Amino acid sequence: MKIKKKNKYRVIGLMSGTSLDGVDLAYAEFLYKKKKWRFSLSASDTIPYQKDWRQRLSGAHLLPAEELLLLHSDYGKFLGELCSQFIAKHKIKKLDFIASHGHTIFHQPQQGFTFQAGDGNAIYAATGVPVIYDFRSLDVALKGEGAPLVPIGDQLLFSRYDVCLNLGGIANLSLQKNKKRIAFDICYCNMALNYLAAQERQEFDNNGNLARQGKINSKLLQQLTAAYSATRKAKPSLAREEFEKIYLPLLGNDSISIPDRLATVCESVAQEITFALPAKKIKLLATGGGALNSFLIEKIKNKLSKKSKVLLPAQSIIQFKEAIVFAFLGVLRMRNEVNTLKSVTGAKRNSCAGLLIG
């Protein structure tokens, strides 16, 4: 089918990460000019999850089939309502479509499936705006990991940086190597930090203030290092299942104070990132919620070579880069162009993924 390609697209991107902070909404404009993509962010919001949604999503992997399908529909309706409120609040008049990542409930590419809650049909029914969703399943069907997907955005929108590091629930990075984009998950980041902060009745460790009060526990650091050594070379896509099975028992050691555990996790994250990076001088773009944790950023900077730079963009880009990139994945899907790279996911071929509704 021949696709009529435009040079300008106005899109709302939706993202819900593994750390369950909330739903990120980003309204961005993408312009294709002189064979290069540019973007501008016009409006953005994070809607924190209320207790009921946090509980429903965090326990969704335990639901029987019928209840999981109900959640999928309810959550899609919820996302659609958030979009409608966002459109009204920011007086958005021109909108081509909505691109939604949804919230990952299952990610088991080795078993041949991945599932993100948030039915695109329900989003469309609530908004009347075309919706693109389910960006991961095709790659998994093509024997890929279905993740990470952001690197195509890094390549086309943020090419001036040597490395793009995302410090989300899971820390991951992407870079060009031998004229190919490669990317991989590194370690659990905000999933671990937020879990520990919750023990102190905080949603997250603001600026790393709690971690700054702690000391590195050498035994816990050794345990985390040993756990990550098994995945360091394989570079699989990390998921909640492994976090709960392998890492939560280590983090739940109540004989170590919360500040000490937080400090140790920050040390571990910085260490794993350093192991993953090329040793040469690099310009590294850091985004995601963890980039707002000044203690963690200090740890990373201290471990890199003195010639390397850790660059923090505007706070709106730090917070909403993933939502912006998923909006861009939708643009590529609309144009029937590659939006998932086999060099990143290990799939049999590049693909153009996403289901279009409306």
Number of helices: 13
Predict the CATH topology of the largest domain.
Nucleotidyltransferase, domain 5
Largest sheet: 6 strands, mixed
Q: Determine the CATH superfamily of the largest domain.
A: ATPase, nucleotide binding domain
What's the helix-strand series? EEEHHEEEHEHHEEEHHHHHEHEHHE
* CATH class type of the largest domain: Alpha Beta
Distance between the termini: 17 Å
Mean pLDDT: 94
Number of domains: 2
Low-confidence stretches: none
How helix-rich are the residues, as a percent range? 40-55%
Brief digest:
By secondary structure, the protein is α/β, with parallel strands linked by helices. It has 13 helices and 13 strands. It starts with 7 loop residues before the first strand and ends with a strand.
